[in-house]
Amino acid sequence: MSASDFAIRAYRVKKNYGKSTDGPGLNGLTMEVPRGTIHGLLGPNGAGKTTAVKIFSTLLRLDEGEASVAGYDVTAEGHRVRERIGLVGQYAAVDEQLTGWQNLEMFGRLYRLPLKQARLRAEQLLGQFGLTEAGSQQVAKYSGGMRRRLDLAASLIVSPEVLFVDEPTTGLDPLARQEVWQAIQSLKEAGTTVLLTTQYLEEADQLADRISILKDGRIIQEGTPDSLKSSFGGDRLDITLLTQEDASSAAAILRELGDGGFSVDEANNRISVPVSDRTGSLLRAASAFAASGLEPLDMVLRRPTLDEVFIHYTTRSDYRDTKEATQA
Ligand SMILES: Nc1ncnc2c1ncn2[C@@H]1O[C@H](COP(=O)(O)OP(=O)(O)OP(=O)(O)O)[C@@H](O)[C@H]1O
Ligand SMILES: [Mg+2]
């Protein structure tokens, strides 16, 4: 891929809020996002997601390193970058006192569209985000999902090449979340590159072509949702037993089979075993159980969830300690 194929590039970007050089912020962020894709930037609270979005959208200056968006350097060519991007911040930007219509019309005027064009665009966007009927209502009366969709609409007054969306569905119910996901998906279909930050694994899994996991200001893992799941040790065999007693017998049998490294969910009498050969392991375990008269309720082969990958990469090692230290 050549440089122009990337909508977003960051090379060893550092941003420090504090006085010490390895304090909170970004500590050498390197990433590339191909044009026309949805990229998920995933990380726990304080990982640096919003900081990265602010640097890419030129709201914040980087201390060291290089970053470009839509082919333009964020430091030297900030105005060119701003012409080509949209930003949906972590907190809503729309005015509660105005109606949906008035908000979009106002944003259109801010982008210097003539009134007639601003009105036309507002109408189109309300339609696109399923807000035509709600358009004449005051935003204060909107649900969280409607607000978020209006926020997205407002960032699209002039179709951006690259859209930054910071935690689009935090605090939304599952239905509203689905609606926002659909809206983001349709932007990608229209050719916009989307960088999406989220703490929800499911969100990244559903939407993102590729995911970067951010921790303490740097990327610690990157790949497609599938490759991240495989990198973490492949498939798992989940065995659910009827009683706690059965669960301990099953655990003993698995230990004898040499299927180490399994975890036991005691509340649900469920054992989760990492397996390298899927059906082989399933058959071996099933026949060993049968031989000792043990009948599991359920035996399923599955891929690891992105949750398991995320927890594995972000909470082992020193994450908790540093988090507690910064909160103290
Ligand atoms: N203006 C600021 N001044 C000082 N420290 C800051 C400032 N903004 C952010 N930080 C610190 O920088 C680190 C990264 O913050 P950032 O907001 O980028 O994280 P985040 O990944 O977006 O977190 P969240 O999931 O909570 O939104 C945190 O430790 C935060 O406390
Ligand atoms: Mg944030």
UniProtKB/TrEMBL annotation:
Its main location: membrane. It is a peripheral membrane protein. Transmembrane segments: none annotated. Residues 8-241 form the ABC transporter domain. GO terms for molecular function: ATP binding; ATP hydrolysis activity. InterPro entries: AAA+_ATPase, ABC_transporter-like_ATP-bd, ABC_transporter-like_CS, ABC_transporter_ATP-binding, DrrA, DrrA1/2-like_C, P-loop_NTPase. It comes from the Bacteria. GO terms for cellular component: plasma membrane. Keywords: ATP-binding, Cell membrane, Membrane, Nucleotide-binding, Translocase, Transport. GO terms for biological process: daunorubicin transport; doxorubicin transport. Belongs to the ABC transporter superfamily. Drug exporter-1 (DrugE1) (TC 3.A.1.105) family. This is ATP-binding cassette domain-containing protein. It comes from Paenibacillus soyae. The lineage of its organism: Bacteria, Bacillati, Bacillota, Bacilli, Bacillales.
